[in-house]
Amino acid sequence: MAIFEKVSGIGANSERTDLNVSQQPIRYISGMPYGAGGTVPQQSGAPMYADPSAEITSEVVPLTEVTQRKKEPVMTGIDIGDGAGSEALAPMPIKPTVSLVDTFRQLAINDPSGDAELIYRRLVDEGR
Question: Where in the chain are the domains?
Answer without folding.
Answer: 20-54, 95-128
